[in-house]
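In this supplementary section we document a worked example of the pipeline. Step one takes a protein sequence of length 125 as its only input; no multiple sequence alignment statistics are reported here. Step two produces a three-dimensional model, which step three serialises into structure tokens for compact storage. The input and output of this example are shown verbatim.
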Amino acid sequence: MNTLTQLFFENSLLYQNKTLFGFKKDGEWSHISWNEASDLVKDLSVGLHEIGVRKNDKISIIAENSYKWCVVDLAIISLGAITVPGYTTSNEDEIFYLLSHSEASVVFFELKIIINYRKYFAKIR
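The serialised model returned by step three reads:
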């Protein structure tokens, strides 16, 4: 049985330089290939592992949909950790509730990594 990350890396080998993601940057279309995305996922998963993320850890992503969201999610699940998604339309109390009850150890907020999110949210509350 293949996992989602196994399928992703197998497809990265198969499709290599073909476009995986397209997005607008400064009004112009940009593209990311399967190889580039694979490198991003690998680099981020190594970084997450280095800061102590392990199997079954909960990691929250609170951000708009984008290729970056996909990369972060794939890096998280490649480590066997669990993605806890949040909505950018949620208010502060809803996000605080999500994080308080999910046991998330790391939060990607607007795709910036926040390790000590309790201290971060205490500052903005």
